[in-house]
Amino acid sequence: MKAAVLREVGKPLAIEDVRINKPGPHEVLIRTVAAGVCHSDLHFVEGSYPYPLPAVLGHESAGVVEQVGSEVRTVKPGDHVITCLSAFCGHCEHCLTGHMSRCVSPETKRQQGDEPRLAKDDGSMNQFLNLSSFAEQMLIHEHACVAIRKDMPLDRAALIGCSVTTGVGAVIHTSNVRPGETVAVIGCGGVGLAAINGAAIAGAGRIIAIDMQGSKLNLAKQFGATDVVNAKDGDPVKQVMELTNGAGVHHSFEAIGLKATAEQSFKMLARGGTANIIGMIPVGVNIELHGADFLGEKRIQGSIMGSNRFPVDMPRFVDFYMSGKLKLDEMISRRIKLDQVNEAFDELKRGELARSVIMFDA
């Protein structure tokens, strides 16, 4: 099969022929239909986060089940599925307490000594985040995908696999936004737009979108933002405080992954507010907070994949889209072929587009 392989940090992905194995007892073979090009992939390309190479990248995808292992009970051949990097075992402490996105059990991967899921003639190929979806097929654990209704377009379903689940989930699960509360979202890329949309679905009374691109702020209004702040016009914290008459916001969501914006997300909080860091701050970067600010019972916390319970959440998000509540059409900037993946990364670096989606049937 054709796949986009990262062999060296900082270098373009190469389109190569990669061998894929047969499903083991708890594994599923999926024909990839669509894969979103996410900023998280770019972090690994640029070396902000280390990963064993060579690897087939990609982690935001949807497709059709082709084969299943002997013990698989969750999906069957022909099912349309969304994949999720939050593969879970189902019986560790995190899973049993309802925090499946925190599961780190090695059971969802092939064990040492087993044949690798992906391989080349010159050696094994590393699977990326349990998925490797920049490829014509995926071989994954059954608890890394969920079946969805077949009338859902798979190019839009792919976005639910990462950006939507991360953004909407951070709002409704991690921070538990309540109706009438005030929300600020820093960064209006795919994840930030999903957080804005999630805040609107949750009934937030005011949703402030913050970015430096006017086009993205205009898009944020379509996703539910009631106010927009252009950081080019001055300190965004000051602008948020002015919009809230000095009170600050109940919830902030940092969806970029920078030291400065993480610190801003905390500074713009109201007393008792919660800052949620969704963006991937590079390894080794520290953020600075003033101790006195904690006297106002302000909190700062991380969110991994929107604290999801994806087998339950994703079919519901599909229903939200089909009923018009979840905006996905507007999030797709363009549809591309696999060999255009490096162009999509260049666009991500420029910060111009929300999402490019690779279409494998194109």
Please give a structural write-up.
With 362 residues, this protein is of the alpha/beta class. The chain folds into 2 domains: 175 residues, Medium-chain alcohol dehydrogenases, catalytic domain (Quinone Oxidoreductase, Chain A, domain 1), CATH 3.90.180; 138 residues, NAD(P)-binding Rossmann-like Domain (Rossmann fold). The chain has 9 helices and 19 strands. The strands form 3 sheets. Strands 4, 6, 7, 10, 11, 18 and 19 form a 7-stranded mixed beta sheet that branches. A hairpin with a 2-residue loop joins β8 and β9. It is globular and about 60 Å long.
CATH topology of the largest domain: Quinone Oxidoreductase, Chain A, domain 1
**The CATH H-level homologous superfamily of the largest domain:** Medium-chain alcohol dehydrogenases, catalytic domain
Query: What is the mean pLDDT?
Result: 95
Number of strands: 19
Rg calc: 20 Å
Q: Describe the global form.
A: globular
Beta percentage is 25-35%
Main pleated-sheet profile: 7 strands, mixed
* N- to C-terminal distance: 15 Å
How many domain modules? 2
Which structural class should the secondary elements be placed in? alpha/beta
Query: What is the CATH C-level name of the largest domain?
Result: Alpha Beta
